[in-house]
Amino acid sequence: MINLNEIKKIPAGTDKIQNILTIEKEVTLSILRLDKIDEDISGNKLFKLHYFLNDALSAQKRIITFGGAYSNHLAATAKSCKMLGIPCIGIVRGEKPKDLSHTLLFCLQHGMQLEFISRTDYKNINNPYPGKYFTRYENAVIIPEGGFSLKGAAGASLIYKYCINKDLTHICCPVGTGTTLAGLITSPGSETIIGFSAIKGQDDIDDRIHFLLGNAINKKYSVNQDYHFGGYAKKTGDLISFMNHFYREFSIPTDFVYTGKMMFGVFDSIKKNCFPPGSKILCIHTGGLQGNLSLPAGTLNF
Ligand SMILES: *Cc1c(COP(=O)(O)O)cnc(C)c1O
After folding, report:
1. What residues flank ligand 1, with Cβ below 6 Å?
2. What is the DSSP letter of 96?
3. What is the pLDDT at residue 181?
4. Is 0.85 topped by the overall pTM?
5. 284 C-alpha to center of ligand 1: Å?
């Protein structure tokens, strides 16, 4: 298992992204390849899980967490727990379908026990914290959906160790629950953090950030809502052809739920002069590539 305390050894690395657009607009663009950490444990998920995994190990408790049928978070939790020998339960949103998704099959194969609950119950439980429903589980470390918690944000803030010494003006990341964004906001540097929301009409981001961080917000941040492509896990032909084009040009795979949308948004923002000349922009590739398996074969060129 990857030990985040020895962060320099993690196989991530940064790739430079340069083309006619970045040259014309005089910006420097690069991407932090957290997707390279592991093919199943999405880059940012490992960071968000870090302190929870440590808790479960040291207290010898099992882990209980939540997600939908295609959840990168469930897949990452299942594999991490398997590698560390931690028993885990995944509470899945919605009734059990006849055919399980590739993600849920993956979770089962990695020893995660699955429980299906109705969408209404699920919503009540994650509102925003898992409530008393789970008192029936003793000896468990409970991880809120997507790791949305101070502990999850503290883990995500470790990502910043990859961003120092790069003289950056902007750091971009995709936004789901906002936990990764919150973690980056707690970092010490003077960069502006820009989140790209993967969810339509996500107007509670500031509340989420305040919920997680209180008043410990010492960094400029903003959230761009213009690149959700119809909503969470929705896609358009434009998005898919952008992702294929991006792969052809830079050999970097993206996922259609988060990082593809963010990169589309970053390029479009550069085009629209949202970044002043001289900007040094780092995008965080948060992984999520397992989610592309839900697309029909041949949709993507990678
Ligand atoms: C879960 C996920 C996100 C969202 O992260 P949050 O911390 O919930 O905002 C972004 N990118 C990928 C690939 C993810 O799997």
Report:
1. 42, 44-45, 72-73, 146, 174-181, 255, 258-259, 286-288
2. P
3. 98
4. yes
5. 10
